[in-house]
Structure formats: C-alpha cells, structure tokens
Amino acid sequence: MTIKEKLAFGYGDLGLSISWTIVGFYFLFYLTDIAQVNAAWAGFAILIGKIWDAFSDPLFGTFSDKTTSRYGRRRPFILGAAIPYGITFIILWTVPNWSPWLKILYSTIAFLFHTTASTAYAVPYNSLTPELAETYDERTSLNAYRMFFSILGGLIAGAVPAFVIQAFADQRFGYSVMGTIFGIIVISSPLVVFLIIKEKAAQTETGGGFDRSALKDIAKNKPFLLAVSMYFFTWTGINVVSATIIYFATYVMEREAEIGFLIGILFVSSIVFLPLWVWISGKLEKKRAYQLGMIELVLCLLFIAFFGDKLNNFWLYFAVVVTGFGVSAAHVLPFSILPDAVEYDRLISGKRREGMYYGLTTFFQKLGTSLMLFVVGLTLNAVGYKPNVPQGPEVLLAIRLLFGGLPGLLFITGILLMMPYPIDRAFQKKMLEDGGSSE
C-alpha cells in the first residue's frame, strides 16, 4: 500500500474513534447528570442499543461479504452510512426535557439509530484490513497508521468536548453544541475512505453466508477463537474505563475542571508510544507485545484508582503519561492480531468472509461492553449514587473498583487467552506457502 492509501485508511478511523470515545466517555454521564435520567435506566438504555448494535454486526458483515457492485463489496456501505452516522450522533445529545419515561424512550431510540449507522460503516471498514494488507508486518504497519488516527480521535474526543461544554453556562446547551460540531466531523471519515481506497479485484469475489458450514469453520479456526476472545475482554475493559473516568475524576479526585486536560495527556502519550509498539511487536511477536502492554496497563490503572487522589500534579500527570504506554498497546496490537486469525479461515475454507468475521468480532465486544455498562449503571444506583453532590465512602469505593478493578480483571483474562495463541511471523508465512495446512 502507498503512504496515501495508508493515511486515507487510517483517517477512516478518526470518525469512529471520535464518536465511540465521546459516547464512551460522556454519554452515561450526560444521561445521569445532565438529562437527569436514573442511573439504572440510563444503563438500560445503553444496554438495549448496544445489544442491537452487537447483533447487527454479523448481519452487516454478511451483507457486505455477499454484495457485488462496481464499487466493490465494502465501499457502498461506507458511502451510504456517512451522513446518517453524523446526524444520529447529533441527536444523542439533544434529549428533550420531557417526563422521565419519555426521556428514557428518546435516549433508547436515538442510541439505536446511531448504533445502526455506526455498524453499517464500521464493519465493512474493518473488513478491508486483511484485504488491503496481506503480510504479517504490513498489517502491523497499516494498523499503526489507523491507530494514529484512532488515538488522535480519542485525544480530540476525550479533551475537546469538555472545553466546548464548559464554554456555556447551560451545560445542556453545551452538550448539544458539542454534538453538532463533532457530528459534522464524523461524516468526513467514511467519505475519505470511499473516495481514496479502491478495492482490489479479489475483493469483488463474494463470500459465503453465515450458515451451518460457516459455524463449523469458525469452530475449527482456533486462532480466531482465541483472538476474538482477547479482543472481547480488552475492549470491554477499555470501554468500562472510558465510561467511568469522568465519575472518577469528578467525585474521587475532585478534578472535574481538569478532565479534558488529563484525557488529553493520556492520548498524546498513547500517540507518542505507537511507533515503539510497532518496534516491540517486531522484536517480541504481536502476542508477547500485547501481554507486556496489558500487564503495564493493569498496574497503572490500579495505582491511579487507589492512589491517584493522593498525588500532586506532577506525579499524577506522570502516572497518566505512563498509563498511555499501555493504552497505546491496547489500541494497535489487538487490531493487528485479528487479521491474521481472520485470514486463517480463508486458507482452511477457501472463502472470503472477512465481513462475517469482523461482524462477529464486534458482536462479542459490543455485547460484553453493553452488559458491563449496564452493570456500571446498576452498581452506581445500588450504592446510592446521586448526581452533582459529594459522594459517600461506599460510592467512592465503587467508583474506584469500576475504574480500576473491573477493567484489570478483564485485561488479565485477555493476557491469559493469548498464551496458547499460535500465529507468529513464521506461522503466518507458512500458512501462505502451504495453503493453510499449518496446525
């Protein structure tokens, strides 16, 4: 791939990262503290949207696998989703000041529409990865470009919204303005991918559907089962951190005014460490690099969760920078591991079903995230959380555990799942040479 193509493909993740990061960081907090929706019901609204989001992923993946057009299999979906993706993002942040039940209904429906548009773009976009980059190291390189834009989007989405919102005396109006600004930006990513990335001739070949034979092939694809499980636990953990970080900074650390700055430091650090992870994965192999990065991330999160409020500014900022090292690994390495496992299916079945596989990947990840965010809402409600007031010791302990302990357990599970993962550089090369006979 040319540098231009890698940049264009990477830019495609900017809109995804912005929308997912803002929703992950701010949406639950927006519903509970701004729209004044009960925490348990706010978690329920997100749960419904995420469950539909999860189940729609394999559907859109299979649709794109079986699509034939002069634009290819993936690009028609990417173009068609562009404007709906941005518009539905805007309506998330305009919950009317209606009765409690109507606010819950509005939030649920708005989130359902947004997740549908997100899936229509994200799954075909993700499915391009193993098709565009065919070798083990080229995939790490391509995903480094992608993760540069992903983390850049996370930096923008994590830091800038707080400044936009705080610029208005009426925070409800501030959230609406923020949603409009970023909704417009979100539209640009799929448009750039559609205009610059061209699918190869092989990409016009349709794959098989999601049927009994496909299930049998998935069951035989042990590398994928391990990789998708690792991805599930990694990104469920990342999304739990994202959903609880504002509660942690606001109520445990009492640094609400610094939220944007702290998130900015985290993502700048993550971007800086990206080239280092490409180098480390080349030396240690991808799975070892992943395990190293996630161990570091677990230790950092636990330290900040239980000691962060006792640190002065210098040591807190230093701890956040070091945490960015692990966050960077969580972004680039799972995405570079998955294409190798997906490719293994083509070599054992002879079919091109990247869309189905990536749809299943995001299905499991989103299903796990939806359940965990529901647990977060239920937990906050159960321990007596009340918005916009000082919290009691039980609530503060729950927030610490939700921010550090729960994600730590999820990351450790991902580390263990990678221990028997078989694909390394030599394994992938042999797969290509012998047509998939490596076991």
UniProtKB/TrEMBL annotation:
A GO term, aspect molecular function: symporter activity
Membrane topology annotation: Multi-pass membrane protein
Keyword flag Cell membrane: yes
Pfam family of the protein (one): MFS_2
Gene Ontology BP terms: carbohydrate transport; sodium ion transport
Superkingdom: Bacteria
Chain segments annotated as transmembrane: 7-29, 35-55, 76-95, 101-123, 144-169, 175-197, 224-253, 259-280, 292-308, 314-335, 356-377, 397-421
Record's subcellular location: Cell membrane
Keywords: Cell membrane, Membrane, Transmembrane, Transmembrane helix, Transport
Gene Ontology cellular component annotations, sorted alphabetically: plasma membrane
Gene3D superfamilies named among the record's database cross-references: MFS general substrate transporter like domains (1.20.1250.20)
Main localization (coarse): membrane
PANTHER family: MAJOR FACILITATOR SUPERFAMILY (MFS) PROFILE DOMAIN-CONTAINING PROTEIN (PTHR11328:SF24), MAJOR FACILITATOR SUPERFAMILY DOMAIN-CONTAINING PROTEIN (PTHR11328)
Protein name, as recorded: MFS transporter
Source species of the chain: Kosmotoga arenicorallina S304
